[in-house]
Amino acid sequence: MKSKPLRPVVARLRRNWRALRTGLWFRPSRHGQGYRRMDRLYLLEDPWQLTSPQERARFALTNAMIADIAPDCDALLEIGSGEGEQTIQLLKVARSVTGIEVSAAAVERARHAAPEVEFLVGCGEDAGMLIGPRRFDLITACEMLYYAPEPDRVLDALKTLAPMILVTAYEKRAGKLAPHLEGAGWSRLEDMVVDGVRWHCHLWRAAEGGAA
Predict the structure, then answer these.
(1) CA–CA dist 177, 175 (Å, integer)
(2) 58-116: pLDDT as tens digits
(3) How far apart are the first and last CA of the chain?
(4) CA 20 to 30 Å from 193, out of 59, 66, 100, 201?
(5) Confidence at 12, pLDDT banded by 50, 70, 90
(6) Measured between alpha carbons, how far is 105 from 39 in angstroms, rounded to an integer?
(7) What does the pLDDT look like over 156-166, one tens digit per residue?
(8) Largest Cα–Cα separation, the chain
(9) In a domain, 29, yes or no
(10) pLDDT (0 to 100) of residue 121
(11) Residues 109, 135 within the same domain
């Protein structure tokens, strides 16, 4: 009998999860609420199942890519750091990592998981304000940019903070994101593939002598 009140909550979380996976939360009419709704998803721990073997393999492939493009990475900024699962792995390829995450609940867990990392609550669009004068060797935006209401605003903010931005995107959602990852400075890297699941990878490099 005591478990009955939880049923509506669980049902609502499941509906929210389906809406998030299909992008319904981030339709134009809901842009003002999209990031706030992300916090609800973190009522459950590990909502993205980042502790799964498949995701661990993706982390390893991402690290290998970073080791190739930024072999002497001193400072890395992770956008969409969640609960810190991938952040912990990024510490293997960067001397220091700073994470930015829109969910305060996720950041609280991340700070316990990786106390040596600075985690900030906020969105990618406001990265410059959150970071201040600091600059980074590389910024990662893994599996997050297609949840941003305005990807170009995020990318414009990030381009002032580092000379390189690595973006990875799940293949089934990468198509709509692709137009934002074209033009000056952008290149397509080799896809990551784990058990038949594919992620598209894009790298932006600042022009020599450019910003950051």
Answers:
(1) 5
(2) 999 999 999 999 999 999 999 999 999 999 999 999 999 999 999 999 999 999 999 99
(3) 59
(4) 100
(5) low
(6) 7
(7) 999 999 999 99
(8) 66
(9) yes
(10) 96
(11) yes
DSSP type of residue 84: S
DSSP state of 55: H
71 and 10 part of one domain: no
Give me the CATH number covering residue 140: 3.40.50.150
Instruction: State the residue range of the domain holding 22.
Output: 6-41
Q: What is the dihedral of CA 59, 85, 32, 9, to 10 degrees?
A: 120
Helical ranges in 132-197 per DSSP H: 151-158, 171-177
- Both 15 and 96 in a single domain? no
**H or E stretch at 100:** strand 96-101
User: What tens digit of pLDDT does each residue of 32-70 get?
Assistant: 355 766 777 777 776 767 789 999 999 999 999 999 999
Contact 73, 95 (CB under 8 A): yes
Confidence of residue 30 (pLDDT cuts 50, 70, 90): very low
Examine the domain organization and report whether 58 and 37 are in the same domain: no
- For residues 29 and 58, membership in a common domain is answered with no
Q: Are residues 20 and 59 in the same domain?
A: no
3-class DSSP state of 59 = helix
* Structural element, H or E, at residue 99: strand 96-101
